[in-house]
Every structure is written in C-alpha cells, then in structure tokens.
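queue> holo job accepted (calcium ion)
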Amino acid sequence: MMRVFSDKAGGTGTLGKRGRRGMALLMVITTIAVLTSVVVEFAYSTHVDVRLAANARDALRAQYLAKSATNFARLLLYVQSLLDRSVGQASMNFRVWEAIPVHGDAIRGFVEAARGEEEATPVGSLPPAQLSQHLGQLVPAEGLQPFGNYQGTFFAEIEDEEAKINLNKLNNPGLSGAFTAQLVFQLISDERWDFLFEEENTHRERVTREEFLIRIKDFIDENEVESALDLTLATGVFADTASDEERHYVRYPQRYRPKNALFDSMDEIHLVAGMSERLAAAFQDRFTVYPDINSKLNVNTRDPMQRLTILRLMAREPHHPAFENLYTVESMLRELDVMQASMPFAPLTPQQFAAVLQMHGLEARQDVMNTEFSTTSQTYTIRASGQAGDVVQTITTVVRLDGGLGKVLYYRED
Ligand SMILES: [Ca+2]
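queue> job finished
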C-alpha cells in the first residue's frame, strides 16, 4: 500500500509499469471493499429478515396460545355456570374456576398423563400431517400432531367482576343506588388514599371524595344538572341542584360532554371530570362497570380492604368504634380467613359475614343481606397470556355467562 501511494506521490507525470500495477491493485482493493460491503449488507439484511420472520412466527404462536388460554377459561366458567344452576344451596357450591389453574404446563401434564395410560407415544414422535391435495377434505387423523404438542406456554387469570363495586349502580334509584354510593364512599374513605384527593391532576383540578362520587354519577345519569350528595339518607342519596354538570367539562382544551349513559368499559372512567391517572389507577381493581346493573355484590373477594368494606356496610352502625380498633378489625378478617380455609373453594356467604360481626358484638342489617349481597357471579374478566420464544401476547376478555360460553362485553389484545 505504501509503495503504491509513494510511487504516485513520486509524480513521474505518466504512469509507468509500476504505476499501472499500482492502479490495478487500487481497483482490486476498491472492488473488494465494495463487494465486502454488499455481502455484509446482504448477510445483515438476511439476518434481519430471518429474525423478523421468527418474531412474526412467535407472535402468531403467542397470540393463538393466549386465545387457547381464553377459551380454556371460558370453558371453566361455563362449567361454573352449570354448577351454579344445578346446586341450589350456596353452602354446597364450589368455585371451580378458582380450584383449577388455566396453565399450559398443567394442561399438557394432564394430557400426557391421560395419554400414558392408553398408549406410550412420546410427544413429538409422530410425523407431520400429510396435507390433502384437494381443498375442503378432512386432514387424515393418523398424521396429526397429538394434542398438547405445541411450543410455548399459556396461562390465564380469572377475576370475578361481581365481587367489585359496580359504578353503574350509582344510577340505580332507591336502596340499591344509595347502598352502592355508601360502598364506594366507604372504600375511598380510607386515610391511606388521602394523597389522591390532595394532589392536582393535569388540568390543575382537585376533587374531594364527595365530588368524586358526584362527578361519576353526573357523568352517567341522564339529566344535565349537577347532583348533590347526602350519604346519611337510606335511599335517594343524590339530589338534583340548579347548577349545570357540563361546567366541569367545557373548560378543558378539548371540550366534551358527560356521557349521560352507563359506562361500557372501565377505560371511560378516565373521562370523568376531575379524574386523575393516579386516582383511576388506585381503584381500577376494586371498581367495575361490566355486571348487570341489578346484580348484587358477591361477598367472595380475597381483598382484605374490600372484605372490611362489606363488613362495615353490613353492620347496622358502619361507624361503630369497633371498626377503628385495629385489633378488632384484624380479628374479624382472621375469622373470615379461618372460614375460607375450612372449605377452600366453597363460597363465603353473607350470613357468614353477619356471623363474624355478631362474634364481635356488632349487629348485622337484615334488609341488605339478601338484596345487596350474593354468593354467585355471572360476569368475569379473563386475563390470558401466551408466550412463544421471547414474544408475549396478552388478551383481556370480559364475559357475562348466558347459559353457553358467555357473551363478550370487552375484548382487547396487547
Ligand atoms: Ca348527567
């Protein structure tokens, strides 16, 4: 290299024999450099293409694994609905969806165990299916991969939506609406949520706990006047005022109006005036909008805070000093745990909550016992995940049981 350039730098004016050789060498080097970069670029883009294809394959696998998990969960809930209908007595009931995990490995293990008894065919030993030349013909069964022979894994979690407080019930007239308002207020009253009602949202607004309830009610109710709240009343806790509920919405940079209809999804909670991201996030798991507005609150929740809310609202005196006594509160919650542990997958009943209150010297309200609380549910959220390679796909489905596999109220793929 140095020779080549030093010869040129020598500057003889015309290219001598050595100069021509140098030129040839330069062309060869340049050509090799160009070719190398082309080959590297080609190898790189091929590598990227392969990765993209593998990723797309894994994404598709993961998506279908998540769909499988969703379907398994829906099947379990269908079995639950059959049980709920055939067993009249709640004390004999069984929460099958809590007892059986929807997990790919568990299901595969179960399938392999079942197959092991019939025939000793190891998974993956069968040749791939011969595809038929003619469309619309059945794939021959002998060439099929056995059930459970798939790559990746899936699982699903089921949540009981009716064990959460239904915000749409705030619009119910009479005892049911008043009771729901008291439930919501009781839940958000805990002093650990103080910070949520002290900080401003992105619109520099701040709402009190009472305003939080009023804004939700005004967003879904049919009329256009602002409500007032009186939680001391047994029924009709919301009353109309003379002011306009829209005044909270018109000052936003992008104006919009309250919906004046029931929530269709939990995503709409963010539209309520005065709502902040943190406020919505804090109660996302304890509130719902999916169950029927006449459905009762299922007392079967594992959340201690929710259990305490139920105990308080069932008590004749929700503000009894016993509820401020940490020792008594812990004792009541422990008692519920003991009852649950004695029959792990049987539902707790409102009567058992009442019994716990009585054990601690508190009287239970009989008027709400069977009208506001229940032990069975129709509405569930299924959070399903499928994983293949590095790709995870999740599907969230809300279903309401209808005698079959249920009606889908909400569906989202991520
Ligand atoms: Ca309204």
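queue> Residues 218, 221, 223-224, 245, 258, 260 surround calcium ion (CB under 6 Å).
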